What does this fold into?
Amino acid sequence: MTKAIKVIGIGEQGKASLLPVYLNWIEECELLVGGERHLAFFPDFQGEKLPIKGGLSKVIERIQELGKETVVLASGDPLFFGIGSYLAKKMPVEIYPVLSSIQEAFARIQESWQDCTFISVHGRSMKGLAQKMDGNDKVCLLTDAINSPKEIARYLLSFGMNEYKAFVGEALGGSTEKTAWMKLEEMADYEADPLNVVILKRKEAGPTWTLGIHDHEFYQRKPDKGLLTKKEIRVLSLSLLQLTRTSTVWDIGTCTGSMAIEAARISRDGAVFAIEKNEADLENCLKNSKKFRTDITAIQGKAPERLEEFPDPDAIFIGGTGGNMKELLQVCCSRLKQDGRIVLNAVTIETLSEALQTFKELGFQTTVTQANIARSKPILHMNRFESLNPIYMICAHKGENTE
It folds into this structure.
C-alpha cells in the first residue's frame, strides 16, 4: 500500500470533536482502525472496522495486507504519547490532531503548559517516576487503569513528595467530565474515572540535594560507618562513569546506596540497578533511596549471582568484589554495552594489580586515578587535616583509551 493512511485525533465528544472534512474522510474510507471506544462512536460505519488490540505490529500488518483506503482514530493529538509517531515510522501517514485531554486540562486550571514536565505512565511502569519528577514545579501525568491517580498518590507519598497538590481531570470534554484539586493524601483514596489526566503543582519548596551529598545524610550501619563511598570519591567516580540522563547503571556492592542514588539523580530517564550481599546494608540502601527520591532497583545477593536479572548496562560501578574478582569482571565485561565504562575502586595494591591484569586479559583498556583526600578538622582553636584512605579508581573501557 503506497497511499498514505489518515491518522485522525478524536476527543471525548466523539463525532462532535471532529471537523466536517474529517467526518467525510471517515465516512468515505474502506477501513476504520482504532480502539473499541473510538470505533463505537461510529456505529453506522459501512466499511470494515479493525480494533486495535494487543501489539500494534499485527494491526499494521493487517492494514498493509488489506491495502484499503484507511483511517486510524487516535486520542487527541496522535503525536503526543500516541500512536502517530510509531505509525509514521512504518508506513506513509497524514496526521490530523484535535484538542487533546492535556490542552483541556490546562484550560480548566487556566494555566500555561509550555513550562510543564510531561510524563506518561500509561501502559508503562511507574518505576523511576520519583527522580524524573522531583524538583519540577509543574508535572502532567498521563495515566491508565493500573497507574491511576490513587496509585500515583500512594507512590509519591512513599517518597515523601507531599509538597505537591494534584488536579484530576476526568473524561475531559465529555458528558461525564469531572475536575477537582486535592491533596495527595486525598487522592490516595480517590476512585477516578479510568479516562483521566493528573497535573501536579508544587505548592511549597521540597528538599534539594546537589551532586556530592554529604556523607552524614545517608543512613549507615552503626557503629562501623566506614562502608560508604565518601563524598569526594563518589563525585570523582561518577565523573569517570560519564553518565548521561538515559544511562542504565549497575552498582555492585552498593552498601548504603550512595553511588546508586547519585547515579539515579543524574540518569533520571535511565535506570539504576544495585546489588548488596549484606541484609542490614541493603535495608539502609532502600531507606536512602526513599529519602533521596530515587526509585532504584536494589536486591540482595553476592555478585555475579543475580546479575542476569539486570538489563545490560551503559556503566558499572564496583565498590567491592567480594573476593570473586575474575568471575565478576568476566560477567561485567561481557554484559557492558558498546562504549560503556566500568569503574572499580580499590583500597589495596593487590586488588589494583589483580583488576588491571584481569581487565587486560579481557581486552579492556584501563586508566588509574589515585585519590588522596584530606579534610580539615578542628583542633582546639585551630584546624588540621585528617586523611581519608587512599583510593585507586580503575576506569576500564573496551578497545579505546579512556582519557
In short: The mean pLDDT is 93. DSSP finds 13 helices and 19 strands in the chain. Residues 279-291 form the longest helix (13 residues).
